[in-house]
Design brief:
The chain is mainly beta. The protein contains no helices and 6 strands.
C-alpha cells in the first residue's frame, strides 16, 4: 500500500507501508492493504505509520483529510 503525507508547504512522506493509524474526527482508525475506499476528516493528533521494513514512524498533525483508494492513501495535513 502506498502512502503520501502532504502539507501545503511540502511532501512529508512518500513510500510503501503496511498500515496507517490516524486520528479521525470521530476517533482513531487504521487502514491496511485492500481497505475499502474512504474519505475522512482528521483531527489533531498522531499518525502512526508502519513502513514496509516494519519500522514505526509517528507524525503529529493539526488536522486534515485522508483519501483511501486502490491501495493508495493520500493524507492532506494542515500542518506536520
Amino acid at each position: 500500500m502506498h502512502l503520501d503525507i502532504i502539507t501545503p508547504d511540502k511532501n512529508v512522506y512518500n513510500g510503501e507501508v503496511i498500515s496507517v493509524q490516524m486520528p479521525g474526527t470521530d476517533g482513531k482508525f487504521q487502514v491496511l492493504k485492500n481497505h475499502a475506499p474512504l474519505i475522512a476528516s482528521l483531527a489533531q493528533g498522531k499518525v502512526k505509520v508502519v513502513d514496509a521494513q516494519k519500522e514505526t514512524l509517528f507524525f503529529e498533525i493539526s488536522g486534515g483529510v485522508v483519501e483511501v483508494l486502490n491501495n493508495k492513501v493520500t493524507l492532506l495535513a494542515e500542518k506536520v
